[in-house]
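Tutorial handout. Part one gives the primary structure; part two gives the three-dimensional structure as tokens.
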Amino acid sequence: MKRVALFCMVTLLAVVLGVSCASAAKVLKLGHIADPSNPYAMGAQKFADLVAEKSGGEIEVQVFPSSQLGSQRDLVEGLTFGTVDVVLTGTAVLGNFLPEIAVFDLPFIFRDRQHAFNALDTIGMEMSPKLEPQGMKILCYMENGVRNMTNSVRPIKGPGDMKGLKIRVMEQPVYIEMMKALGASPTPMAFSELFTSLQKGVIDGQENPAAHIYTKRFFEVQKYISKTEHAYAAEPVLISLIAWKSLTPEQQQIVQEAADEARDWQRQLAIGEESGFWEKIAESGKCEILEADEVDREGFKKATAKVWEMMEDRMGKDTIERVVNTQ
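Part two.
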């Protein structure tokens, strides 16, 4: 009887442990800096949902928005050490780890969004192996959007109106030199500090896509917005190699497929949401908006052309030409 009882106990324990192990999902922590209502934040959640669905709950992606896991630089560095598993960040920030990827941030380098998508999905993805020595790989590129100038000093209609303005930029040579070329004073600053700095007048203005201008309420503490559309902002989705290698080949395929599907979904969402953001900002009556046809975009393009030449050594002239010539 004792042997039978012992056998039953061992069998029951094995069953319990088996169920426990089977139900324990592989957890991946995903961090980004956007408000949850931002289109690329929604893209991150879509990715998490797709991973859960495709893996049958075997893999769980936990999303931490609004800089909960740190600044963009903190997040990218976290990939190297495996303290964060998946990150959405800007190519500008990533350019501090791989200089040539900031080619996508050069002023006026893209003809339109489709040009950007085609370049990112080819040349951009080819850059992934170069990040692997730093412990990360690119899954795909989502969209942040087209960047525009805001400030509280005066309407910006042409490059001359930028002179002397203290403008927040990301910690990236492309944006620093861009502002210098326009006669502004570039001020590198973490995104999480931006609203308060604008509110207190520590800086005069900033530049970001409509999604950030609206969801982070920058329009409430700025008097003027100019649709300069001076740069396009991609949002790479990266995974830590530590996390990637902890997945089986089948799980890796699931994660990659989910990323590709979420990318296509998010890009369309971002395009569709952009006009709504502008409408809501205009309806608020809190700032004056200068449309693209009211801004001397050709003047901005000419004023910043020298930035391309300055960045050739960092990015490679061939890389810049490949992006420009992408069809």
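Part three, for discussion. The first strand starts at residue 26 and ends at 31. Confidence is low (pLDDT under 50) at residues 1-22.
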